[in-house]
Amino acid sequence: MAGLRTSSVPSSKLFDLSRVAAATLVAAVFSSHAHADVPDADRHEVTYLLEYLRTSGCEMERNGKKHNSESAYSHVKKKYEYFRDKIKTSEDFVEYSATKSTMSGNYYHVFCGSEPAERTQDWLLEELRRYRAKNSG
């Protein structure tokens, strides 16, 4: 096997290069998420809206099928995780996560007891307005 050469780079240099490549990959992954999402100072609003949906006891209609509030919460939270890199405000959260189906384009509606159905987007934005008013100054 004399004369068989596998690499012209010494193994100590390969180790250093692989560490640099791994560090670069990790930094790229974290930096792509570091600037995404609602700012820390406002994230409590998204948390509040998710919890409001989950505990509302209301049903959310998606593509003609009603889902209980726990299922609605799970769906909206998944969409939030998926679109997190596009979401910069609490209003963006509602727009991307709780407004309409990305597949069909149909708007989501919420049904709360005997109240008339309304778009989930409008329902959550109104609750966000109330939450901000209650928690300002």
Describe the protein's architecture and organization.
With 137 residues, this protein is an alpha+beta fold. It has one domain. 55% of the residues lie in helices and 9% in strands. The chain has five helices and four strands. It has helices at residues 11-34, 43-55, 69-83, 90-97, 120-135; strands at 59-62, 65-67, 109-111, 118-119. A four-stranded antiparallel beta sheet has the order 2-1-3-4. A hairpin with a 2-residue loop joins strand 1 and strand 2. Helix 2 (43-55) packs antiparallel against helix 3 (69-83) and helix 2 (43-55) packs across helix 5. It starts with 10 loop residues before the first helix and ends with a helix. The model is unreliable at 20-34 (pLDDT under 50).
Secondary-structure map:
Elements: H1 11-34, H2 43-55, E1 59-62, E2 65-67, H3 69-83, H4 90-97, E3 109-111, E4 118-119, H5 120-135
Antiparallel strand pairs: 1-2, 1-3, 3-4
Question: Strand percentage, roughly?
Answer: 5-15%
Oligomer: single chain
Overall average pLDDT? 84
Radius of gyration: 23 Å
Instruction: Domain count, please report it.
Output: 1
Question: What attributes does this structure have?
Answer:
4 strands, four-stranded antiparallel sheet, 5 helices, alpha+beta, 137 residues
Gist?
The chain is 55% helix and 9% strand. It is α+β, with helices and mostly antiparallel strands and 137 residues long. The longest helix is centred in the N-terminal third of the chain and has 24 residues, at 11-34.
